[in-house]
Amino acid sequence: MKNFEELLNELSPLLDVDLTVDSNKACVIVLNEQIKIQMELDIAGEYLFLAAMLTELSPGKFREEVLKSALKANSLSSYATTILAFVAKLNKLVLYEKIPMIDISGKKLHEHILDFFHKAENWKRAIESGKTAPQGVLADERPSSGPNFFGLR
């Protein structure tokens, strides 16, 4: 298992940016000058966390609808490793990912970061354009009709 600094050294050339651990033992990457992704190891060093603050959600009906969409997205297989959450203190929607450090390489992390970035960018863009979710994300949702467990609906 690699340590965080070794991983950042492998990742730096792939992203074409200098990556270093800051005083908080984290690293922040800014992609497309709009999405900041913070990377940080858990205390035990077993998992790497990615986090991105997406956008502010003011109180009201629109926020409720966005949060409903986020909960639905969290249950989709395409969001198996990522979680959308709401930080009430900041009124912001946040995207998180937890990556096991075992067998991780700079190349694998690069792929995780790109996927994570695209999800974050899609949510940010959708919400800022007045939509409650990116187009097509909830299309993967399980159909509500048809036979369910014990025939219940």
Q: Notable features of this structure?
A:
153 residues; alpha+beta; 5-stranded antiparallel beta sheet; 3 helices; 5 strands; 25% strand
Task: Report what the structure shows.
Strands 1-2-3-5-4 form a 5-stranded antiparallel sheet. Strand 4 (82-87) and strand 5 form a beta hairpin. It starts with a helix and ends in a 25-residue tail after the last helix. It is built from 3 helices and 5 strands. It is elongated, with a radius of gyration of 17 Å. It has helices at 4-15, 61-74, 106-128; strands at 26-31, 35-41, 47-56, 82-87, 92-100. 20% of the residues are buried. The chain is an alpha+beta fold. Helix 1 crosses helix 3. Mean pLDDT is 88; it is low at 142-146.
